[in-house]
Amino acid sequence: MKTQSPIVTSKSVSENGSGVRLDKWLMAEFPEISRSELQRWIRNGHVTSEQIRLTPGVKVKTGMRFAFTLPEPPADPMLPEPEALPLVVLYEDSDVVVLNKAAGQVVHPAPGHAGGTVLNAMLHRYPDMRAAGDPARPGLVHRLDIETSGILVFARTPEALFALQTQFKERTVTKTYHCACHSIPNPIAQRIDLPIGRHPVHRKKRAIHGEGARSALSHLQVIKGLASGSASLLEVKIETGRTHQIRVHLAHIGHPVLGDTTYGGKRAHPPSPWPRAPRIMLHAYRLCIRHPRTETLLELEAPYPRDMVEYLSHLEHAPS
After folding, report:
1. Which helix (H) or strand (E) holds 164?
2. Which residues have CB under 8 Å from 109's CB, separation 6+?
3. The domain that contains 295 carries what CATH number?
4. Active site positions, annotated
5. pTM, 2 dp
6. Residue 146 domain boundaries
7. Cis peptide leading into residue 275 (ω within 30°)
8. Tens digit of pLDDT for each residue in 1-28?
């Protein structure tokens, strides 16, 4: 078995980072890693500095430089297996595949979801995708939450994966979502520019100005009122792609996505006698990207799933 070398890198503290705890500064540098894991890095000697002895609570200063010898990645990651599962394909060619993901589908294998995911289905239908990027998550350009339906993009070649991920990273992709929310926002068109980070207590949640918060920008527009003003259908365009971004932003302004009990609390459903939402009513409706090889503009739309169509219909008519 071939042994993989540890990942070695270094980072220096900018003026903006000066004065904060080392573990909090690391959260901004490695937002995908939990604070407790970063603290283990420090205590286990994976983070070093020639200037001072390190503890998680030591304060960093501008210009300080840290070296990282990160834990060795698994030599043999569990590889996803092809599975014959249904897919709704909106667009496909030899470089890219665009799906209309169903609500309830997990995008890729993870703890608790070893199979039955969109990625398993993609590998069955497009076995050549296995060569595109990380063997554990080949072809994966971006993600959608399990309860979110709509447009999901996969790359079939390493070159296409790099080109598409670059577009998302550089924010040249136009991402438009539709959702049903509680009541009607006022004003009916708003710009929400509030940073999002990890919730300080509930580690699976995100929060405005949470730990390691990063910029998050959403633009909302009311499409129409529903349920006699107790709900509305929104179009939301996001310039960033933070975890749970739309759900956190809308909950913060008092108009959570219907069905979102995680962030919506008592406002997760419209008042009686209007029906409760069957799930989080959020749909990735439109995506505009450049083709990874030809650079032709692809403008793609995903029809609403049946449960969303039926629920919106219920909210448009007086309850029986």
Report:
1. helix 158-169
2. 78, 80, 115, 117, 119, 120, 136
3. 3.30.2350.10
4. 145
5. 0.76
6. 89-163
7. no
8. 344 444 556 788 887 778 888 888 888 7
CA dist list (Å): 112 to 16, 75, 106, 200, 268: 39, 21, 10, 24, 26
Inside any domain, residue 25: yes
pLDDT tens for each residue of 24-62: 888 877 776 777 778 888 888 888 887 777 888 888 888
Domain match, 59 and 157 both = no
Retrieve residue 162's tokens.
Answer: 């790099």
Helix (H) or strand (E) holding 246: helix 245-252
Furthest-apart CA atoms within the chain: distance in Å:
72
Indicate the helix (H) or strand (E) that contains 307: helix 306-316
Number of structural domains (the chain) is: 3
Residue 234 lies in a domain: yes
Write the pLDDT tens digit of every residue in 237-272: 999 999 999 999 999 999 999 999 999 999 999 999
Based on the domain organization, do 269 and 224 belong to the same domain? yes
Q: 84 lies in a domain?
A: no
Residue 231 covered by a domain: yes
Q: Tokens 């080949």 map to which residue?
A: 138
Which run of H or E residues covers position 262?
helix 261-264
Residue 89 CA to residue 202 CA, distance in Å, equals 36
Question: Residue 265 CB: number of other CB atoms within 10 A?
Answer: 11
Residue whose structure tokens are 């239908």: 125
Q: Same domain, yes or no, for 93 and 139?
A: yes
